[in-house]
Amino acid sequence: MDINRVFRHIDPEAIARDTLAFVEVASETGSEGPGSAFLAGLLEREGFDVEMADVEPERPNVYARIAGSGGGPTLAFNGHTDTIPIGNSASPARDGDWIVGRGTEDMKGGLVAMVHAASALRKANVTLAGDLWLTGVIGHEAPEGKKEGPKHFIQQLRSGKIPASAIIIVEGPCAIWAASLGSAIFTIEVRDDRGPIHTIKIPYETNPAYWVGRLLTEFQVREEQFKNQPAHPLCGRQLYNVGAVHGGDYMNRLPAFFKITGTRRWTPGVSLSQIHAEFQEICNRYASQSGLRWSYFLEGEREPFETPPGHPIMQALIASAREVSGQTPEIIGMGLTGDANFYHNDARVHTAYYGPAHQTAHSDHERVSISQLAHCARVYALAAIHYCGKPGAVS
Ligand SMILES: [Zn+2]
Fold first, then answer.
1. Domains of the chain, each with CATH number or no CATH
2. Distance (Å) from CA 104 to ligand 1 centroid
3. For the chain, which terminus, N or C, has the lower number of CB atoms within 10 Å?
4. Ligand 1 mean position to 81 CA, how many Å?
5. How far is the CA of 195 from the centre of ligand 1 (A)?
6. From the CA of 138, how far away is ligand 1's center (Å)?
7. How many A from CA of 170 to the centre of ligand 1?
8. C-alpha 106 – ligand 1 centre gap (Å)
9. Alpha carbon of 133 to ligand 1 centroid (Å)
10. What residues flank ion ligand 1 with Cβ within 5 A?
11. Degrees to nearest 5, angle at CA 120 with 115 and 122
């Protein structure tokens, strides 16, 4: 089939107009309704049937199914309709090849490219064997977002209502992002039942501050060990980092309570239960050595994800990016975790990211290149053909 039949329906100027209009609609996390409505309107304008599924009142996810002729695998494109707070971000504008403003790169541009890809297939009368789903979710951006939208989407995947066997998230660098570290925020608390008494009565080696010092030194040693272990080929190495240490209130009163908070990141192959075991072991050991009470808890836990290069969704993306640009795309991993971590671990659906760029997201000069969005739209259209297959084709 002559792919230019499809590509001639991908119009960078139309993508630019829709992206700018989308960015002009504020949809900060928590009040994404207008953003979801814009996406739904765009899909309806292009002739697709859309379901607005209220995840919370006036905060709908958007689901559109493009039925295939049957016999092919189902692919879902996915993105989030919310943005971080607009804050001091540059106002929405067109600047040459760029659309500027909050939510351009992260990630309204990608959602527009996704719609234009599907629309180009329809205008070129390309029917796929498998179903194609175009989906937008709310509640992505932390801390306001609690992943309400991704969780609702996961329910649809698990119940078989959206029976996707692969997901492409339409944001990220212009490379196939196929792995992320797992991560969790840890808090360790140390309590001394003697309370805040005068330190003159206390030998330093029984002071909680002494033991917190030993713990921080142990993190340093563990960090050195991680550095010396072979790193994961895509997303690097495991790590510890500490963001806050609180304890004590006076120069010669015993600091009877300490709280150490930080981030622990781990590579695909290591599981959250191993991380729990690690912190439990640390607390048990320090408790028995120090005679103090040690406890920990984890928050914001994300298991790592990794989509193997041989998976059909990777093959589809690699072939598509190569056909569009003439170059073999890079396959990358990130320390950053995202919705793919959930889709992979909670819905067991292999996921990869492909987007226009990941350079200005969350900054006050967020922007996205129109030519890059057109590139993405071409890659998405081709990837849908490669993954979902053509009717009658032997897959
Ligand atoms: Zn994003």
1. 4-179+305-388 (3.40.630.10), 182-302 (3.30.70.360)
2. 10
3. N
4. 9
5. 46
6. 11
7. 9
8. 4
9. 19
10. 106-107, 171
11. 95
Tens of pLDDT, residue by residue, the chain (395 residues): 789 999 999 999 999 999 999 999 999 999 999 999 999 999 999 999 999 999 999 999 999 999 999 999 999 999 999 999 999 999 999 999 999 999 999 999 999 999 999 999 999 999 999 999 999 999 999 888 999 999 999 999 999 999 999 999 999 999 999 999 999 999 999 999 999 999 999 999 999 999 999 999 999 999 999 999 999 999 999 999 999 999 999 999 999 999 999 999 999 999 999 999 999 999 999 999 999 999 999 998 999 999 999 999 999 999 999 999 999 999 999 888 899 999 999 999 999 999 999 999 999 999 999 999 999 999 999 999 999 998 755 43
Kindly give the distance from the C-alpha atom of residue 115 to the centroid of ligand 1, in angstroms, as a whole number. Answer: 17
